[in-house]
């Protein structure tokens, strides 16, 4: 169950990351190849997240599976969504810097993109994660 849940969440999270990454990178980019660079950078960030976040998510699930200190399931899912979002945010920020360094040979502009993605994803991913949790809990 944990592996299937991790995979379904990663699909939802990856789509969200790619769309947000593409829009933000395109917005902060300048030049003739803005669209191509945005597609490439968003794809690299999303591709790397498939690996890193699947691993992190699995361990996050295993840790939360063993915790019994919150009996109210709705509160538990909210707190769990917040804790996962913190892990996910740090991962996304680091991946943006890595992709910028290797793709653009600089980290200039990476902080704006990383903080913008973080600001948007903190909302979108927590909402998506909460509903993902509720769906899996009810099944």
Please describe the structure with a list of short key phrases separated by commas or semicolons:
139 residues, mainly alpha, 4 helices, elongated
Describe the structure.
With 139 residues, the chain is an all-alpha fold. Helices cover 86% and strands 0% of the residues. It has 4 helices and no strands. It has helices at residues 2-28, 34-65, 73-104, 110-138. α1 runs antiparallel to α4 (110-138) and α3 (73-104) runs antiparallel to α4. The radius of gyration is 16 Å and the shape is elongated. The termini are close together. The mean pLDDT is 88.
Helix-strand blueprint:
Layout: H1 2-28, H2 34-65, H3 73-104, H4 110-138
Helix pairs in contact: 1-2, 1-4, 2-3, 3-4
Percentage of helical residues? over 70%
Got a strand count? 0
Shape: elongated
Report the uncertain regions: none
Task: Sketch the topology as an H/E string, one letter per element.
Answer: HHHH
Termini separation: 11 Å
- Please state roughly what percent of the residues sit in beta strands, choosing from under 5%, 5-15%, 15-25%, 25-35%, 35-45% or over 45%: under 5%
Rg? 16 Å
Overall pLDDT, averaged?
A: 88
- Largest sheet, strands/sense/barrel: none
- Helix segment tally: 4
Backbone structural class: mainly alpha
